[in-house]
Task: structure prediction
Amino acid sequence: MITVDTLTMGALGGQALAGGALGYTTFRFLTAIGFRTISAVNTIAAIAFGAKQNNRLGTIVTQGFYLALFLALPVMLILGTASFWMGFLGQESANVQLSQAYLHGILWGIPALFFYDVVRNVVTAVNRPGVVTAIAGGSIFLNAGANYVLAFGKFGLPALGLAGIGYATTIVVWVQLFAALLYVGLSTALKEFKILQASAKFDPVTFGEIFEIGWTNGVYCLSGAGYQVVLVYLFGCFGSVPLAAFQIANQVCLLIRDMVWGLAQAIIARVGQRLSLIHI
Result:
């Protein structure tokens, strides 16, 4: 969906793409750290599934939700105050204002993004990723339509520009989350795992298992993806045109990397299942 946001920004013009690039890259960087940290849910759930400890899956999901909330709140705070610190990094005021408009719209979708990622990681770990993946795929088209309506002001609605792109994505990710939860709750294929039927009580042991693996993934992402943020802000110091041009090239690289990451998560799930068999 974030790629769709970039395409819509380009349709709004070069200045909008430049301003959106600042917000988009900052948003993507911080949420990527969250996704990598949450990916530990996949590992722990795969080990439990491979060991036939299906009764643990619900607890793993619940603790994953706690982790998602723990990560979402500071990310929302950082993005919500971006206009106060972007200027200190040498960015043009016009780009900062446009960036903040986008971020103020999209930051409300961060909890839904992280909660959805918890669900996706668990259903991947139990070899049932099909429907949740299809929901994510459908969300891309829904997001494109919502971007068109809110960014350009269709059907009598005001044209919100970059803010509309942010709000559109927020709406879609919440719809995506509720659709995934509905599927997990009603699916007969997942009924035996009782994924959404665990106690809402905080379990420090399970939470610690997830976080022990997850924080290293997050730190790795911090170092591995941080260079892209540095490059974006560096190009922003040269003006809007170089920044917009870099965003187009950068998006292609990110799209390829995301496909590789998806394959890596499937491999992680398989390794976790095999590892649990060795320890039985």
Summary: The mean pLDDT is 84. Residues 124 and 130 are 8 Å apart (CA to CA).
